[in-house]
Amino acid sequence: MEKIVILTGAGISAESGLGTFRDEGGLWAQHRIEDVATPEGFARNPALVHGFYNARRGQAAKAQPNAAHQALARLQKNWPGEVILVTQNVDGLHEAGGAEPVIHMHGTLAGALCGACGHRWASPPEMEVGEPCPACQQPTARPDVVWFGEMPYFMDEIYDHLIEATLFASIGTSGQVYPAAGFVQEARAVGAKTVELNLEPSAGGSIFDEVHLGPASEVVPRWVDTLLAGNGAR
Ligand code: OAD
């Protein structure tokens, strides 16, 4: 039975109105990574970091899933084998589009994490500096997102899936951030077919067996339809 592992990035949510990081005018053109997406930045200026994620949480709450999110949910429901959906995105648009389960390797804006005891709870719409952890009462609440210099979540689980993959697809990600950028090599090493769906070829684009260029809302539903038609699973 075919096992599909899919990795998504900011490009899949672009047409839902959420900014990507490295495209022209993207988030990393407006903010310094070391200020808003590192543990050191948070230690230096927690108000700035909370402000950055509060704004992103507000935008994500207003955003609607697009045809690409919905197509992947359809694939998960109708594919006769497993479809493992791994996202680098911290928005909840895959779930809003009907996908389940979703592996959030870079965490989620919906979560709060205690920097002292590791307790997790649902984030309020706006997090504030010094908010106490409900478990240990320390004023160390932070967004439950993975910052540069931290280990992404669920890595063992993801590698376990990758070694069983027969098809690997990378969607809307620039392929510049590891370990996610290395998943295609892992999948190739076990003989999986590799496909990229992206607006422009990514950093490692030439390594993929197949590349479909265009906006996610167009190329992803088309790719999903082809897969499902090929399996008589529609
Ligand atoms: P990037 O901003 O690096 O890349 C976005 C990709 O999406 C690019 O390859 C674009 O060509 C593509 N793209 C843009 N619009 C698109 C559209 N409408 N349809 C399809 N593709 C489109 O974002 P990521 O690769 O997700 O990590 O970034 C990876 C990680 O770097 C993020 O999770 C974040 C960031 O720093 C952390 O904050 C830890």
Architecture overview:
The chain folds into two domains: 1-17 and 65-106 and 152-234, 3-Layer(aba) Sandwich (Rossmann fold), CATH 3.40.50.1220; 19-62 and 108-145, SIR2/SIRT2 'Small Domain' (2-Layer Sandwich). A six-stranded parallel sheet has the order 3-2-1-7-8-9, sandwiched between helices. It has 234 residues and is of the alpha/beta class. 35% of the residues lie in helices and 19% in strands. The mean pLDDT is 95. The two termini are 16 Å apart. It is built from ten helices and nine strands. A hairpin with a 5-residue loop joins strand 4 (107-114) and strand 5. It is globular. Bound molecules: 2'-O-acetyl adenosine-5-diphosphoribose. 2'-O-acetyl adenosine-5-diphosphoribose (OAD) binds next to helix 1.
Helix content: 25-40%
The CATH topology of the largest domain turns out to be Rossmann fold
Largest sheet: 6 strands, parallel
Could you report the average pLDDT, rounded to the nearest whole number? 95
Number of E-type strands = 9
Look at the structure and name the CATH superfamily of the largest domain: TPP-binding domain
End-to-end separation = 16 Å
Rg on CA atoms, Å = 18 Å
Q: What structural category characterises the helix and strand content? A: alpha/beta
- The domain tally reads 2
Q: State the order of secondary-structure elements, H for helix, E for strand.
A: EHHHHHHEHEEEEHEHEEH
CATH architecture call of the largest domain: 3-Layer(aba) Sandwich
Strand order of the largest sheet: 3-2-1-7-8-9
Q: How many helical stretches?
A: 10
Please mark out the parts with pLDDT under 50 across 5 or more consecutive residues, or reply none. Answer: none
CATH class of the largest domain: Alpha Beta
Shape type: globular
Strand content: 15-25%
- Small ligands present: 2'-O-acetyl adenosine-5-diphosphoribose
